[in-house]
Amino acid sequence: MITAALTILFHGLAFAMVLYIVSVGLGITMGLMNFANLAHGAFAAAGGYVVVVATRSLGLPFWVALPAAFVVVALAGAVVERLVVRTLYGADELRQVLFSIALLFMAIAGFTAAFGPLQQQPEIPAALSGQIALGGVEFPSYRAFVIAAGVVILAALWLLIGRTRIGMRIRAAVDNRNMAEAIGVDTRMLFTLTFALGTGIAGLGGGIGADVLSITPTYGQEYLVLFLIVVAVGGLGSIFGPFLAALCIGVVDVAGKYLIPEFGAFFIYGVVIAILLAKPAGLFGVRS
Amino acid sequence: MTAAILETRALHKNFGALAVAQNINFSLEPGRFEALIGPNGAGKSTFINLLTGLVPPTSGSVILDGQDVTALPIEARVKRGLVRTFQINTLFNNLTVAENVILALDEHHGQGWRPLPSPSRRRRIRDEAYDILGRLGLTPWGNREVRELPYGRQRLVEIAIALALRPKVLLLDEPAAGIPSTETGTVIEVLENLASDLAVLIIEHDMDLVFRFAQRITVLVQGAVLARGTPDEIADNETVKAVYLGEGIHA
Amino acid sequence: MPRPTVRVEPVKRLSVPHPGAAAPSTWRGLAMGRTGSDLAIAILLGLGALATLAFGESYWLLGSQVAITMIFALSVDLLVGFAGIVTLGHAVFFGVGAYSVGIASVRLGWTEPLLGLLLAAAVAALLGAATGVLVLRTRGLGQLMLTMAFASMVYEIANRAKPLTGGADGLQGMVVSPILGLFDFDIFGLTAFLYTLAVLAAVVVFAVLMTRSPYGRSLVGIRENRVRMQAIGTGVQKRLLSVYTLSAALAGIAGALLAQTSQFVGLNVLHFSLSGEILIIVALGGAGRLWGALLGAVVFTLFKDRLSALDPAYWYFWLGLLLAVIVLFAPKGLIGLVDRLLAAGRPKETA
Fold it and tell me: Which residues of chain A neighbour C145 with C-beta distances below 8 Å?
C-alpha cells in the first residue's frame, strides 16, 4: 500500500517536473506576448536532440550537454522570434496557431531527416544510472535527479522573475504592456529575451526529460496537449501556476495509469476539464 | 402619473469593500427624457451596466415594464426593449453601416435563427435599415464600411443600431463624447426627434446638452443618488453645486 | 471607396429614393467577400469535376477524397472562418462520423448508406452539442486546449475499445449497400465519386444559403464583435453552440462518406494531424470564404497526393513551408489571390 503510494508519488513527481520544465516557458511567452506557440514542444525536442548528439556523437559529458541544450535552443528561439514570430504579434489567433503549426511540421520533417523516425536516448552519467532507496523502495536515481532539477528550475525562475530587474520588466509587461512601454521598457528586446528563455528552458526540459517523454521527431505534436494543459490549467504568465498544474496532472496521470491501467489515460482529461470549468482563466492566471 | 417603464429598487453593488452603487431607487416613465450626471467615478457607467445586465447586482432589483428582469441576461432585456448605446463605439467595423443596422433589425424581428435567406424579406429589411439611416442623415454612408467613417458619424451608427431595436427604454452613454462641437448639432436634432413614447436616460458630460433636454436630472455621487429633480431644481441645489456643478453653471 | 462587386440585384433598384442604397447591397462584410471570385472558383471546380468524370478514370478515387475533404473543410470554415471559433480537434467529429457508419455496418449489419449519413450526422451533432457546451465556456487558449483535449480523449477511447473499433488495426470488413438500392459501389470508384459529389453539392448549397441568411450573418456579427451582438439581443452562447453542433454534424457526414467509400475506418480519422490539416486547408483557401475553403481542399489534397507519394516526412516539410508562406505572405489565402487577379483584370473606373 505504502509502496504503491510512494511509487505513484515518485514517478508522478518525475513526470510532473518534466511537464513543468518544458511547459513553463510556453506559459510565460503566451502571457507576455499573447502568442499561441504550438511549436513550443519542437524546441523541447530540439533540446533533447542536442543532448543526444552531444553525449552520443560528440562524447561530451552529460553536464556539459545540458547547458549546451539550453544555449543552442535559446539561440534558435531568439532567431525564430526575430525573423518571424515578431511579425505575428497582435495578429489574430488563427494565424498564430497556423504559423506555429507550420514551424512544428517543418521541425518534425527536419528531425526525421536528421535523426530518423526512431526514439533517441541520451547517454546518462554513471552517477545517475543506478537505483536509490527511498522509504524502503528502490527508485531509479535518474528520476530523482529529474525531480530535483524541476525544483531547482522553479527556484531559479522565481529568483529571475521575482528578484531581478529583467524579471521586474517582464512582470510589468505581462501586467500592462502599454504602460511598460510608456515608461520606457524596451519590449522588443524583452520579447526576444523572454522567447529565448522560454524555448531554452523547454530545450533543457527536453534533454532532462528524455527518460520520461521519449525523444522522437513527433515529440512536439504528441505531447502538445499535455503542455497546453499545464499552461491553461496553471494560468498564463505565471511560474507557480504551471508548477502546481504540472504536479496535479503528473500525479493524477501516473496514479490513474497505475491503479486502473485500462482507463488511466482519461483521468487527466477529466481533471483538466473540471478545473477549467471551475476556473476558466486557470489556477493562477495573471492573464486569461 | 403613468406607471414606470424602468425602475430599480434598492439596487446595490459592491466591488469588494467598495460600494459602487448604493441602494439606488430610480424610475423612468414612458416618454420621459431624463439625464444621469455626476463626477467621474460616480458610478454612472456601473449603474447602466447594472440596468442592462452586464454586471450582476449584489442586491436589489431591476424592473422593466412591470416585470423583474434582474436575473435575465443582457440579450433577454434587449428583446424586452431595454437598449443601450456605448460610450466608446462598439460597432462591427468591417461591416458596412447598413449591415450594422440590418444585423440589429434581424435580431429585433426574431430572424437571427433563420438559416435560409429570403430575397423579399431582405429587401424589406434593407429598406427599413435605410429609413433609420435616413433619419440620422447617414444614408450616403450606408454602403461604406464603418471603419471608413469619421468618428462622429460612427457615434450616429451607435444610435442607429439602438433605434433599429425599437427600444422602449434607451440608455445613451455619452452620445456626444468624442464628437467635435461643430457636429453635436446632428446628435441634438436626432434626440429631439425621438419617438414620443420612448423613455430615454442619457449620461452626458456636456451640461448644455443635459440642461437643454432633460426633463429631470439625477445626480449620482459615489454610487448614491445625491439629488433628483428638474433642471432648475438641480441648478439651484446647493449640495449639487458644491459637490459637482461648481459655480456659474446655468444661471 | 466602393469596391467593384458583381451585382445580382435587378437594375431598377437604382431608382429607389435613398441614394446610398443604389450601390450593390450584397452582404459585403469579410464573410461574403467578392462574388466574382466565388463565381470563378465555382465554375473552375465544376469544370474540374466534369473533366474528371469524363476523362479521369484513374482519378475517381482521389476525386471522392477531394469531395469529402471539401465537405469537411466547409464544416470547419463555418466554425473558424464565420463564427471565429478556433478548433484543433475537429477530426473528432469526422472520426466519430466515420466510426458510426463503420460500427453500424460491421457490428450491427446496418449497411444502408444514406441512413448511415444521417446516423453519422446525428452522433457527431450529439457529441458536438455535449462538448460544445464546455468548449464554448472558455475562450482563446483554454478553448483551443479543450478542443484538443476532447479529441485526444476520443482518440484514446477508440484506441482502447478494440472490440468495437478494432483499435489500431482499424475497422475492417465494412459492407455498404447500393445507394437507394440501385447503385452499387464499383471498383473504379465511379459510384463513390458521384455519390460524394452529390452530397457535396447538397452541403455547398446549404452552406451558401446559410451564410447569406440572417443566421449566417449573425455568426459573422459574433466573430466581429461579440459584445455588440449581445447588446442587440443575440443569445451569443446559444448561437455559437448551434453552429458548433451544425459544424460537427457536417464533419460527421464527411467522415461517414470516407468510411463508406473506402470501406475501412482507421484511427487516423481521429488523429490530431487531421485536425491540423483541415485547419490548414481552410487557411490555405481563405478563412471565412466558403469557396476559398473548397478551393483550399482541392489544392491541398492534390498537393498532398503528389508530395506524400515521395516521402511522408518530406510531405510534412512542404506542408509546413506552404503554411508558413500562406500565413506570412497571403493571409487571405488562395481566394485572396483570386480576388486580386480579378481586380487586376477589371477596368478601374471605381477606384
Answer: 225, 228-229, 231-232, 272, 276
